[in-house]
Amino acid sequence: MEITASDRALAEALMTLPGTRAVAIGGSRASGLADAASDTDAYALVSGPVPAAGLRAQALRALADDATVSAHEAFGPEDHLVVGGRLVEVVYLQTDVLSEQVAAATGEGLMSEGFTTCFLHTLATCVPVADDGALAGLRAQLATYPEPTRRRVLAQTPEILGECLKQLVTALERGDVLMVTHRRASVQALWFNMLFALNRVYHPGEKRLLEHASRLGTVPAGSGEAWRRAALLGADDERLAAVLTGLTRDLLALVEREQEPEPGA
What we know:
Layout: H1 5-14, E1 20-26, H2 27-31, E2 40-46, H3 53-60, E3 70-72, E4 78-83, E5 86-94, H4 95-106, H5 118-125, E6 127-131, H6 134-141, H7 147-174, H8 177-198, H9 209-214, H10 223-232, H11 239-259
Parallel strand pairs: 2-5
Antiparallel strand pairs: 1-2, 1-6, 3-4, 4-5
């Protein structure tokens, strides 16, 4: 990824904020999937409390095309501004929270019902623009996918996935289309969470999942097309259960094969 003059100016402004340790670019630009509609996802790693919105706006206002910086809190503290006609979203991440997550990932292991390693993906794949060493230290710990996290995800997900599939089948039989839609989303989140863990790749998030999955080395044959079918089938279509069941069966077969002991071990 090319670091632009705008990226450097953004990093310089953010590093003036109290507690800022590093600034990096992530998202589609860092992953090589950016297109004409892509914005810039910037991450500011901060020790201690995130600076107040007014102070952040003061530091960033000169960079914005219209001198406007809008603060958002829906998913944690963020600032949005337009630079050179392109939206820039600055996400503030606290280093102590990230450190705790890295420690858990490499210790007892992380586990959730989807997107377990998304924060780790952000840290591992972002492109540093400024860093006092805090980001480099975290990235060094993530250079190898944490095996405790992989073991937990692969061990605990199958049971949850099976239960979600059973509930989806029951909802289809009842004609409860909202429950079907809900459980389809659950199955999707669990399935991809397990797939990325199986491949020892940090979960990239909900966007462009099939593109990211196509880059993996171990993927069930035909799963990309099967997921397209599953997404497009109606919530009252009985074929949906069969498609999701097949996807799950094929992925679990890969997981079981991966966990078989080596001959002579």
